[in-house]
Amino acid sequence: MKSLKIKRLNENAILPERASAGAAGMDLHACIPSPVTIAPRELVRIPTGLAIALPDENMVALIFARSGLGIKHGVSLSNAVGVIDSDYRGEICVGLCNVGGEPYTIEPNERIAQMVLMPVLNLPLEETDDLGETERGAGGFGSTGR
Question: Which residues lie below 8 Å from residue 122, measured CB to CB, with a gap of 6+?
Answer without folding.
Answer: 57, 58
